[in-house]
């Protein structure tokens, strides 16, 4: 599924089907707090609507994620040069 949204994720969850994806930010039922909040590079914000988690992270661009499978969390990752970054 390419562009899931909150209501579709809830309907699929009732049928015991989990979703994960990157929705468009202008969907109607996206949480306004996550979409409109000003965040700086490297910051992360998330909100839960029922059992659906909607999160947004800013690196070079804003990335919006929706999931019903996992609780979003940040982990530390190192690249091949040994530099460490925190990513969801």
UniProtKB/TrEMBL annotation:
InterPro entries membership: PGBD
Comp. bias regions, Basic and acidic residues: 30-46
Record's compositionally biased regions (Polar residues): 7-23
Residues covered by the PiggyBac transposable element-derived protein domain: 7-85
Region entry Disordered, spans: 1-53
Top-level taxon in the UniProt lineage: Eukaryota
Short name of any one Pfam family annotated for the protein: DDE_Tnp_1_7
Protein name: PiggyBac transposable element-derived protein domain-containing protein
Signal peptide range in chain numbering: none
């Amino acid at each position: 599924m390419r562009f899931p949204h909150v209501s579709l994720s809830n309907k699929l969850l009732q049928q015991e089907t989990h979703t994960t994806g990157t929705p468009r930010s202008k969907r109607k039922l996206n949480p306004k707090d996550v979409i409109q909040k000003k965040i700086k590079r490297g910051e992360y914000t998330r909100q839960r609507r029922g059992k659906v988690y909607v999160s947004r992270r800013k690196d070079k661009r804003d990335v919006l994620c929706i999931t019903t499978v996992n609780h979003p969390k940040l982990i530390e990752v190192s690249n091949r040069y040994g530099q460490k970054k925190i990513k969801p």
